[in-house]
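Usage example:
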Amino acid sequence: MSDLQSNPPAGDVGSQPPLPARPAPAVPAPEHAGFLARIEGRVKHRLGPKPIRKKLTAISMLACTAAMVIAGFGFLVFDLCSEFVTARNMLRLVGRIAAEDSRELLASGSQAALVSTLDTLMEHPQVSGAAIYIADGRAVARPTNKTGAALPASIPSGMENGAHLSFTSLRHYEPVMEGGERKGTVVVEISLAHFWAVLRIYVLIAAVIFTIAAIVARHLLKRFQGMISGPISELAELAGSVAKDGNYALRATKRHDDEVGQLADSFNAMLLQIQERDEALNQGRAELEANVMARTSQLQGEVVERRQAEEALKDSEVRYRNLFENNPMPMWVMNLETLSFIAVNNAAIRHYGYSQSEFLALSLASITKGADPMDVERAFRTSQKSFDGGEWRHKRRGGDIIEVHLTAHAIVFAGKVAKIVLANDVTERNRAQRQLAEMHKKLMDASRAAGMAEVATGVLHNVGNVLNSVNVSANVLADSVRGSKVAGIRKVADLLESQKGDLASFFSAGGKGQMLPGYLATLAQQIDTEQAGRLTEIDQLTKNIAHIRDIVAMQQDHAKSTGVMEDFTPRELLDEALRMTSAELQSSSVKIEVDCPETLPHVITDRHKVIQILVNLITNAHQAMEGTPAAKRALSVTVQSGDGRQASIAIRDTGCGIAQENLTRVFSHGFTTKPTGHGFGLHGAANAATEIGGSLTGTSDGPGAGATFTLTLPLTQAATLGKAA
Amino acid sequence: MSATMQMGNRRVLIIDDNRDIHADFGKILRVAGAENAALAALEDALFGTETPALVQDGFELFSAYQGRDGFEMVQRAESDGRPFALAFVDVRMPPGWDGVETIRHIWQVSKNLQIIICTAFSDYSWEEITGILGEPGNLCMIHKPFDPAAVKELAVKLTGQWSAQQEVAGEAA
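Running the assembly step on the lines above writes:
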């Protein structure tokens, strides 16, 4: 209450309550601002930090007080004014009456009468004094009132008529006129003591009413201010707890759909947003933490590694010394220029047999055997940092030779550039390799045999088929002979023998002999037919047997590897090879074109090897064309004599072709593209070609473009002579 | 034809890339002509003998020169309702399917077809063949050169077996 009372009433103080977030400035208002504005500023400043509840109370009480004070003041003024006007009017009336009464008395100069008139006036309870003055201002009658006081003895001559107000009294000056001439003045006075008394009572009443009103207002405010401040306080508390605990799941309660309600809604929406962001933030933070953890452990790992590396480095010298000294491989360090040994390790001493001092007196060139010392120097005086020195033959202390593979590396040794050399004894390995090569050669020979077996398999197939026909033919012949009607002749003979005594009757009409000529004719025809059938069968049999003989002869040729050189034309060899493969080629409907000059020089060569090569090439060509459409399968063979020194047989197919990278590989041992092949064929063929002084080459324009294999055979001196002859 | 009907199904398919073999089968399975019958009648009249009636084997022979062709013929015969009773199948028939591959396909369309594998040498052992084809109930193997009598006997026996199986299947159905 003291707060309120100390503050003068102000107009619209509460219309703009200062926001807590933005405190009012400490300096209330600028100098030129009005009084009210300055008060307003001060009130705002004082109320700023207070809680909203107190602000509401203060503002309401201020408004209340201001209203009451203004109302009370208004009533008081109105009342006093009306009292005053009544008193003045009364005074004026009394004054006039007195002036009227006293005019004649004044003219008569009867002072007693004047006094009595005035006494009558004084009888009025409110009139506190009356007097009559003559024109010069002197009093002619001035009775005393109840309190013994009287009006002054004279008045200033220029005194105006009408009411004159002083702090304690109200006087009325009424002129006394006689014939238009002022004869005197009547003065009537009312004491204002009564007014002041009334005023005091009024003020007292107003204070009491105000006090009661304030108490009631405060009580009411207490009861109802919660409607406004409550939700706001709750909101503030909620915001406080959200800020303090970071619990974004809390929500404000909305009571009404007023501004505070809207604020609660907005606050909740904001909380929701914050909650979502908070969750996203938490998630991000978790990820970040995981990353940091991972990175931390990685860093720790790196630190450990680095520490290990440092430790390793610390030990490296010792280690390297150990590595060198105790390495199981012979090693040495040698002078870059002279190639003399500077240091040797234990393994080198053990392996070579030289003692350390002996070693240090030697150089690499001096222990190398079978190579020029200059070559050794040239090989190792290279600027390369690390290089493969190749294989060398070294002499041991006892004089025996070892084969070593040297690897060299440039190092700084005792402040000078030197070479560290590692010697790997490959003596045993090389020996094993030589054995392996021998084995390989044996295997190659075996592979040739396998290649021939392939030929033999084909031969067997053909023989089997032909033999079948032979067998059937023989059986047919046997059946034919067994069931032959030739026996009929014997029967006729027996019949005639039995009828010998009476042949005439036998042949007479009605006798059985009459049937005999017809039977014999039929029999002869039947025997002819049998004969023809048997001849056909025998013919076929002979052909088939010849066929088998050919096949077997060829097989025999291949079964034996005589190495006998014989005289042939290339055409003969080619024809034989084609004959051997014709069954397969025909069954796959491969078109065969042979381009061979009529006259060709002879070759003296190992026939079976040439046949083996050609059969192999033809078989390969045939197999390469398995994926080619039947209409396009063609095998063209071109025989040429070239420059007269050699003949070439080129076999070209329209098959799957050979990729560029495989053109040389096709000749290598074990290379095959066939699922069931063993990779002996071309390898063996190329070997055979070399053995007979010729060569075998292959070309292809790539996959799908077919391939050409060319066998060249040397034309011998004899062949040239034969041609000349 | 009535003889054929009497004997049951005598339709035989020969699958072999070698034409001579087809001729061989023809010689074995086809019976010599009926011209002998006239001579036999004359002999009976002249010498008073009794020639027994000729047993008519009457095999109908069909030829295929590649495995796939053979398979297609079997397929067609099945769909025409005139199935083969027996097939002779060669093993080596370049460049197409070999015999075993062919049989595998054939049995997918004609389960009861009796098959005789003919081989000049052992491309496949019996174990390998059964490994590929499974239960070989309707399969037997002959080696070239084969005995004509044995071939004929097998042909008669197996076509008979085919007919018996059909009857059993029919009764079962």
